[in-house]
Amino acid sequence: MASVTPDFDAVVIGAGFSGMYMLKALRDKLGLKVRVIEAGETVGGTWYWNRYPGARCDSDSYIYCYTFDKQLLREWEWSERYPQQPEILRYLEHVAKRHDLKRDIQFNTRVTGGAFDEATNLWTVETDDGAKVTARYLIAAVGSLSDTNIPSFKGMGDFKGQIYHTSRFPKEGVDFTAKRVAVVGTGATAVQAIPEIAQQAKHLTVFQRTANYCVPARNGKVDPELVKARKDDYDGIVERIRDSFFGQEHYFIPRSALDDTPEQREEEFDKRWDAGGFAFWLSNYQDMFFSQEANDFCADYIQRKIRATVKDPEVAEMLIPKGHAYGTKRQPLDTNYYETFNKDNVLLVDAATYGGIEAITKKGIRAGGRDYEVDIIVLATGFDALTGPIKALHLKGRGGAALEAAWSDGPHTYLGISVAGFPNLFTITGPQSPSVLTNMPVAIEQHVEWVTDCIDAMQKAGKTTIEATPEAQDEWGAHVNEVVSMTLLPGANSWYMSANIEGKPRAFLPYLGPEGMGGYRRKCDEVAANGYEGFTLA
After folding, report:
1. C-alpha angle with apex 276: 270 to 279, nearest 5 degrees?
2. Which CATH architecture is the domain 148-213+330-382 placed in?
């Protein structure tokens, strides 16, 4: 075996929450030589790219942050319960400066390919500037929702106005004043953007394919006494969210919805509705995700709220979801979303009724044989989730096998962190890990710390490569699918199920373990404690 000194011990792709912490851990804890490659002009990841109106996090700010820096946890002051994009980006810039991260990050550079060399056991990474670098370890910290989904509508190139995807808004923003605007999509992003755009635009037309169950965010300033109490209890909070199902302080009602009387259920629903945020979604009756009857009680409650809020009964019915159970799609948090459809300058077009949007024309959008003239089109059409960002790296493993081909029928991973046939490749919050079903920073920190400990153990044991065995990978994939098949989630055409991308094989992308994030953490720790069971080290 030829001994070749690589340019770097590790190359990390992406400088968002994941990549920044991965750099910090490998460089400062293990003393490795690390290069982070980032397509944007600064740190931030999703919070650099997503700057659409109303963009904000939907996990409570006190847990939507790094927990590895105890002093920063106590020092940093968030302005509200769910901070907006500029504030989160300021936080990440502060972390980068505080830990001197930027000196090891190469910005404005996109990875275009990567290949594993079996003769040297090194990765060669190619970038869009024509450069190549080698590294022992390749770590994809590319985010779960970063590969933009822009539908190929007929006539896209004919439109004479401006078209923007929500994840690629210009830095200077877009002035909607006196403009006729169309928003395509009604997912979590659109639910944030639509009320903001409606306040500016002369007229807003919303094209809906699938109505969503929205719950109130209840955003605002947080009581200073509560802020202080949380800061005093951060050790306890960190322990609880790391061991929780969803990486948050949300816990199911430990009984069936069928066990309570209608009055008791209404009382429980009211509590969670009034609390806002993910409480209604993630701390409801424990059988909500398993029993259609229990789920129907939750759905009916929200449907009644929609009908009570939206003045036009026909519009209200269009906004009531059909064909999927409550909670089986990404939960949007609502701040005046339903109220926005009471405005005189807002029109809802249920495009699904017409089989979708027919075409983009020179002057706007055609649906149902009718032309809607607009000046600006905003595509809130989401992402090729979880697998898309990693496949876009064009990675080749042993024998030149392409990752795109290996995943042609859906993701195949071990623990959502490793792929058989791709040695020394780690995917941070990759497919088949809890990722998007948790508070992301909690999932990110768990993966980064596990990978760091793994590389440390390899170095101490004199091991050069680690890769998942095909058997362990197959068993993990079967487990992921077995668990989710017991729930109502596969019944929805959601991006969790790969259903938002035309031609994408139907597969459940994240991991909904029996004990959620806490159980997954214990499984990963057990794998490591058993000498990295399910991996081959050489």
Report:
1. 80
2. 3-Layer(bba) Sandwich (3.50)
Q: b/e per residue, 95-114, with b = 16+ CB within 10 A?
A: bbeebebbebbbeebebeeb
Residue 447 CA neighbour count, 13 Å, CB half: 33
CATH class label, 8-147+384-537: alpha beta
Beta-sheet strands, E only, within 71-161: 105-106, 111-117, 122-127, 132-140
- Within 13 A of 36's CA, how many CA atoms are on the CB side? 32
Token digits of residue 384: 């090729």
Q: Which residues belong to CATH 3.50.50.60 in the chain?
A: 8-147+384-537, 148-213+330-382
Return the pLDDT at 360: 97
Question: How far is it, in rounded angstroms, from Cα 432 to Cα 412?
Answer: 8
Asked whether residue 1 carries a pLDDT value surpassing 60, the answer given is: no
d(CA 349, CA 368): 9
pLDDT digits (tens, 9 = 90+) for 18-50: 999 999 999 999 999 999 999 999 999 999 999
pLDDT value at residue 355: 83
- Angle between helix 17-24 and helix 440-460 axes, rounded to 10 deg: 30
Q: What does the pLDDT average to over 445-468? A: 98
Q: Summarize pLDDT for 369-422 with one digit per residue, the tens.
A: 999 999 999 999 999 999 999 999 999 999 999 999 999 999 999 999 999 999
Q: How far apart are CA 325 and CA 306, in angstroms?
A: 16
Q: Provide the token pair at 174.
A: 């877009």
Instruction: Look up residue 117 and give its DSSP letter.
Output: E
What per-residue confidence (pLDDT) applies to 3? 72
Helix (H) or strand (E) holding 12: strand 8-13
Q: Tens of pLDDT along 108-165?
A: 999 999 999 999 999 999 999 999 999 999 999 999 999 999 999 999 999 999 999 9
**Spatial distance between the Cα atoms of 479 and 455, rounded to a whole number of angstroms:** 26
> Strand 333-334 to strand 215-216: parallel, antiparallel, or no bridges (unpaired)?
parallel
Q: Spell out the residues 6+ positions from residue 201 whose beta carbon is closer than 8 angstroms to its own.
A: 176, 177, 179, 180, 181, 345
**pLDDT value of residue 225:** 98
The whole-angstrom separation of Cα 8 and Cα 98 is 23
